[in-house]
TrEMBL record:
InterPro entries: AB_hydrolase_1, AB_hydrolase_fold, AB_hydrolase_sf. The keyword Hydrolase applies. One of its GO terms (cellular component) is membrane. Residues 54-285 form the AB hydrolase-1 domain. GO terms for molecular function: hydrolase activity. Keywords: Hydrolase. This is Alpha/beta hydrolase.
Amino acid sequence: MSETSLRHTAAGQTNPPWLDWALERPGRSHFVHANGARLHFLSWNFEAADKPTLLFVHGFRGHAHWWDFIAPFFSADFRVIALDLSGMGDSAHREQYESATLARDVVAVAELLGPAPIIAIGHSYGGSRVLRACAERPELFARLLIIDSYVIFEGEPPPQEPPRIRGDREYPDQASALARFRLLPTQPDSLPCLVRHVAEHSLCWTRTGVRWKFDSNLPPGGARETDGGQMLGRVTCPVDYLCGEASVVVSAERARRIVDALPRGNGPIVIPSGHHHLMFDQPIALISTLRALLASSANA
């Protein structure tokens, strides 16, 4: 994959300076055997054990590189890690995925990063995995920041499943695959340079072409759980809940219900004009909001 291709948009224009700054500080890959699988994560300063640990967790079918242009802005104050959940990114695929599997990935990595409790930031499905991990092992987490994550409450029907996508479909070349890349749900106003960066890191090479990294055997939309109220009630650490003003995933009413169900919930903190994938259409606002929230807790 060409480094030059990450520095230009499809129209040939140079990236904004803040993006070049971030991409000039790439994460370093690590592999560990945890929760019965070979898990991959990126670190920006793994050896900085004197700093509080900040763990980023991506959404469904995503990967750690979704945070490449977000995470470097936190490395001055935190030991920064971004996880690939199993079946996604460069982590191993599994024979079977149970409802608790991916939350246990988060628990396993939190144990590895200890002994001090960590701060976790989760987007979308990653946020719900972080919440469930904290509900199961609250002693591992000091604070959570959750970004536009949907929670199903007791008695509710599950939402419509997203379309199943074949991750094992091969394309003859990178350009053919990149032309097919779409955010789910789709949204307007995403910066093309950010989408392309993530799309390029979503691919792996085979002997005859390229394919998506995620496991086609992942259940559509992840494993659905309908005990959201009870689960949120067991999250005992402080939780900041962020959402996009224009999100089609989390309504204002649901965001408020999630916060109200958390014993120490704060928010919802609404990013103006933001959609579900806030790192693509409101990256500066997202970075600024997360940094402000983390600074406020450090100074409390």
